[in-house]
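Request: Could I get any protein with tokenized structure?
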Amino acid sequence: MNQSPLISLNGITKSFSNGTVALRDMAMDVQQGEFVSLLGPSGCGKSTALRIIAGLAPATTGTVSWGDTSDSSVADSSHDVSFVFQEPTLMPWATVFGNVFLPLKLKGQSKAAAREAVMEALALVGLEQFENSYPRELSGGMKMRVSIARALVTRPRLLLMDEPFAALDEITRFKLNNDLLELWQRFNWTVIFVTHSVFESVYLSNRIVVMAARPGRVVDDMAVDAPYPRDESFRTSDIYSQHCREVSAALHKAMDSYQPGTAA
């Protein structure tokens, strides 16, 4: 592509005070509108990379570049970044509306001024009828939908998702995979999605970045050239199976590239 990447990771290394090297010299470009999955074994630094992109943690060395500017420490509000964590992290004392309203409240908006945006976000995830419900009244899948609505209410350019569906049953996970793809296509977001699942990464992504652990680094960058929209017929297609085999082989190779003596 001729256009500048939306975001670039340039030589990112992250070391902790106990000697753990979570990432070493990680480099990655992400273009506007891509759906990129970070795939790798536990301990390979996928979540750490996401937190550095979001500005939730500083890199030890290296820079994060946004378009034509560079900022190695903070992804501020001008970058329009939202984060969906592995757990819904909802406030139990607040209603569904209140949880989704939170990012706009933090920006200084009143509840009245934000109501249209909050209800629109809830409608996008199919929960507009549950605005007055509390998290304890929701299923696991519904809680995750609230978390996604909260991330979407600010209309981000970049959506970071850290294994958001890992704890859900397979049927719910498949449904949310489909819903996420529909929203991604509709709004042309850029998504960086962390997962342990080869099958999920192939289904969702147009690109898979395979990472190795100890220290965390990129060892493969694979295109998934199957067309969108994707549905259940894609899951049973030959091209899906072929991509899953190729990505699985790359993941096993990454797991074999462990470097002894490096803390992780």
Q: What stands out?
A: The two ends are 34 Å apart (CA to CA). The helical segments are 46-54, 96-106, 111-124, 140-152, 170-187, 198-204, 232-235, 238-255.
